[in-house]
Amino acid sequence: MRYSGFEVIKEGIFGQKGWRPVWRNPDPKPAYDAIIIGGGGHGLSTAYYLAKEHGLTNIAVLEKGYIGGGNVGRNTTIVRANYFLPGNSEFYSHSLRLWEGLAQDLNYNVMHSQRGLINLFHSDGQRDAFARRGNAMINQGDDAILLDCDGVRRILPYLNFDNARFPIYGGLYHPRGGTARHDAVAWGYARAADQRGVDIIQNCEVTGIDIEGGQVIGVQTTRGAIRAGKVGIVVAGRSSQVAAMAGMRLPIESHVLQAFVTEGLKPCIDHVVSFGMGHFYISQSDKGGLVFGGDIDFYSSYAARGNLPMQEHVMEAAMTLMPMIGQAKVLRSWGGIMDMTPDGSPIIDKTDTDGLFIDCGWCYGGFKAVPGSGFSFAHLMATGHHHPPAAKFRLNRFRDGAGLMDEEGTGSQHNLH
Ligand SMILES: Cc1cc2nc3c(=O)[nH]c(=O)nc-3n(C[C@H](O)[C@H](O)[C@H](O)COP(=O)(O)OP(=O)(O)OC[C@H]3O[C@@H](n4cnc5c(N)ncnc54)[C@H](O)[C@@H]3O)c2cc1C
């Protein structure tokens, strides 16, 4: 079924009986042309663009849990293209352009809302750094406006401007930044990939990668062996573990990132706001909850839940920036496992095994990358050539040190990289 206003009205009149599951539930076939390990945002978008852009439809996405159960359904949904360094800025710019047509492309409402994002700065030095970042964004063809304190006050009057420790000097405004509905992105890509013939196989964990004579020949799974001449590893926080199945040791640490949501409130925060002196960012969901988060937990872990010290740290930052938030009740907090690289930038590359590709290292910024990553990774898997906007995301930069892109991305300073 093609979704449209007409279908919604028709179903309303005829008792909502025509809706169907949005993707099939096939059993795995013995062999495919390509296998994608991981049914998160990046795995699903890769499968979709392999089918759409390269005509490869004999593909399986193997997901150990359920679609939307990983980070793609756990993030704080911020979408932006405000990167500074060559290598990152053209990639995220390309990804944002894909976001801008995504709902039409997938025929699925991903609720992409370009409500504007403001990164606050709190010192002269930070202002200068943001001015440079803004110039890089404009140079890339994206939008950036440097606001002084009064400029921020006009847009975000509820902030605590005169906090003695971190007074707000101004902000870098990125009008095309915003949010999207995270699980709708997963569902939209799953549906669109399925419609093009991709098999999405849930509850199918990959337990081994089969290699013969330096060439990948398939995978072992909890639902049996499956053959394929091309395999893409796209498993976010589990990247090190799955790559180890092919004998690889990745430059990746897995850390928990937590997020929080309050009870639903009347509209009060109509932008995405990020605090430049602590790792804190906030937006308001369409249901009214204030959605916010902070830094990763500083120890490696595969537990998708956080701890109290980081919660206290995030709440402190929230209260410093916008004391009004102290009146809201936090309803839920949760965590996801982040694949952190030493330079804060991702990897989209071939491996030393023929036919085996890897897409990982998105740190805490991979939601906004979902369309761009899938597009570029599909290009690499289908053609064997790096897609220009993602051409610098090579693994060997961690071997020889050349081409490192040391960029966290949100504007606040590095704590870990
Ligand atoms: C709290 C939080 C807030 C965040 N906020 C933002 C934000 O505001 N903006 C932003 O851009 N990014 C944000 N991120 C980061 C972003 O969510 C991730 O970088 C991105 O979702 C990772 O890619 P993915 O969607 O493919 O990952 P996932 O959804 O985690 O997909 C990976 C999948 O691989 C599967 N898998 C793992 N091992 C196997 C196996 N052996 N076999 C089969 N399947 C396997 C997993 O079950 C999982 O479904 C945030 C993350 C978190 C946790």
From TrEMBL:
Boundaries of every Rhodanese domain copy: 35-78
Keyword Nucleotide-binding part of the UniProt annotation: yes
Keyword Hydrolase belongs to the record: no
Record localization: Cytoplasm
Enzyme Commission designation: 1.5.3.24
InterPro entries named in the record: FAD-dep_OxRdtase, FAD/NAD-bd_sf, Rhodanese-like_dom, SoxB
Enzyme class: oxidoreductase
SUPFAM superfamilies xrefs: FAD-linked reductases, C-terminal domain (SSF54373), FAD/NAD(P)-binding domain (SSF51905)
Cofactor(s) the record lists: FMN; FAD
Top-rank taxon, per record: Bacteria
Reactions performed catalytically: sarcosine + O2 + H2O = formaldehyde + glycine + H2O2; sarcosine + (6S)-5,6,7,8-tetrahydrofolate + O2 = (6R)-5,10-methylene-5,6,7,8-tetrahydrofolate + glycine + H2O2
First-listed, main subcellular location of the protein, grouped into a coarse class: cytoplasm
PROSITE patterns per the UniProt record, alphabetical: RHODANESE_3
Record key words, sorted: Cytoplasm, FAD, Flavoprotein, FMN, Nucleotide-binding, Oxidoreductase
Family that this chain belongs to: Belongs to the SoxB family.
Protein name per Swiss-Prot or TrEMBL: Sarcosine oxidase subunit beta
